[in-house]
Amino acid sequence: MTVSTVSTPRVGVITFPGSLDDGDALDAVSTMGGQGVPLWHGDDDLLGVDAVILPGGFSYGDYLRCGAIARFAPIMNEVRRFADRGGPVLGICNGFQILCETGLLPGALIRNRSLRFVCREVHVRVETSQTVVTAGLVPGEVLEVPIKHGEGQYVATPQQLARIEDAGLVVFRYCSPDGLVADAWNPNGALDGIAGVRNEDGNVVGLMPHPEHAVDPDVGPTGGQPMFASLLERALAGAGA
Fold first, then answer.
1. What SS3 state is found at 44?
2. Which one of the listed residues 93, 149, 151, 175 is annotated catalytic?
3. Helix 94-102 to helix 74-84 angle, to the nearest 10 degrees?
């Protein structure tokens, strides 16, 4: 791991052409006590950050599958190396799609079952505490966060899905306010109500909801606060590794 020279965790946020939520992610990091570091898709240097966020948006215009072009961005080679060393990586919405396209996370995201863009607040149930964004949470806890996507339906082959479930790789599921997972609370048709997954080591996480929009209590729910708190804690721990 790269050694940080500051006591405040430095979290890099990558801007791709078409990114929309990079500024919001940087603001969320700052609000929660970290230092946001802007990163550019065309660079090949993560600038010694302690964690990386791939934000929401429409990278490269989503002219192919969402995230299919971004996977070839020069900086993604460094993200892969960072993840392989155990560095914390969070992909939000389009960032989740990019992580799936790169193979850092299993499965894929396709058009919503309704074939319509969805934008509203939802509830997600925490399925595991073994990740960089849920270490401070308890399985079964329910968080309120917003979603805004047209291609958020999580899919996988039957074999992949069985392995994902058996290995406990599901991080969040869409649910009712009291934690019930049912089709009525599934906003996009995702298999098994999956809203987010992790890799085997739990240092790479992708989710469709937007925790960066759920930090400031003056503008909405605060379900993103514990996710960013956990990410910053992990980043700070890694900074001294």
1. coil
2. 93
3. 80
Given 41, 123, 149, 210, which residue is catalytic?
210
Enumerate residues 6+ apart whose C-beta is below 8 A from 209: 92, 93, 122, 124, 145, 146, 147, 172, 195, 196, 223
Specify the pairing of strand 153-155 against strand 108-110: antiparallel
Is residue 212 annotated as a catalytic residue, yes or no? yes
Q: What is the pLDDT of residues 82-130, one digit of tens each?
A: 999 999 999 999 999 999 999 999 999 999 999 999 999 999 999 999 9
CA separation for the pair 114, 124 (Å, rounded): 20
Tell me if residue 123 is catalytic: no
101 is catalytic: no
CB neighbour list of residue 72: distance below 8 Å, 6 or more residues apart: none
pLDDT over 60 at 6, yes or no: no
